[in-house]
Amino acid sequence: DGDLAERIEKVRELLTKAGYRWINNTLIFKGRPIREAVILVPSPFSDPYLYKIAMIVQEWLSRVGVKARVIVYSLERFIKEVFEKHEFDIFLYWIETTPYPDYLRTMFYSEFSAPGMANAFGYYSYEYDLLAEKVAGEVNLAKRRELILKMQELLARDIPCIPLLSPEMIEVHSGRFSGWISIPGGIGNRWSFLTIIRVK
To answer: Using CA atoms, how far apart are residues 177 and 173, in angstroms rounded to an integer?
Structure first.
């Protein structure tokens, strides 16, 4: 909690420099209280982990004077609100990581910011788009890695979204099947489901 207290103090310093003030721990800007923020998450039935994180984020925001409310939607409604309508203040979602990080292209490429596509952030960077296009056609692993690192540098600079955590999860599987493929996102991936076979 010591690290958290230091971070909260740093946030308060930055907000003060930007012209924000507090009255009874309510954040004020230009004489008006900041409106309540809404945090959207899919139902705990589809992802209990994200719901817990949403409650933690709500608590963190309250410590700097931002009132926040967590709204839980069915996964179908969540996808509609976030990825189709782009109606959100804050949303929490997970990214499946793979050995080839194609999600960097699908999530942040400007042409994928249309309703129903993955770039719900509305991120647009001409430089990033050029790199994403080069990566899609690059077969040399070393060159592709170099391009992806440049893409990550742009994302770190522009901050279209904030990666909050990378949880360590324990996954188990039945001994009745073999051929599971372990990747950074775990064994529950499409490659496993293409290769597992029943043990005789």
So the answer is: 8
Distance (Å, whole) CA 115 – CA 117: 6
pTM: 0.78
Beta-strand ranges (E) seen in 83-164 are 90-91
Q: Which tokens go with 115?
A: 């309703």
d(CA 115, CA 144) in angstroms, rounded, equals 29
Label residue 188 by pLDDT band (50, 70, 90): confident
Same domain, 123 and 139: yes
Q: For the chain, give the mean pLDDT.
A: 90
- Calpha distance 137→31 (Å, rounded): 52
Domain coverage including residue 134: 95-167
Query: Sign of the C-alpha dihedral, residues 115, 119, 123, 126?
Result: negative
| pLDDT tens digits, 141-163 | 999 999 999 999 999 999 999 98
DSSP sequence for 98-126: -SS-THHHHHH-GGGGSTTSS-TT----H
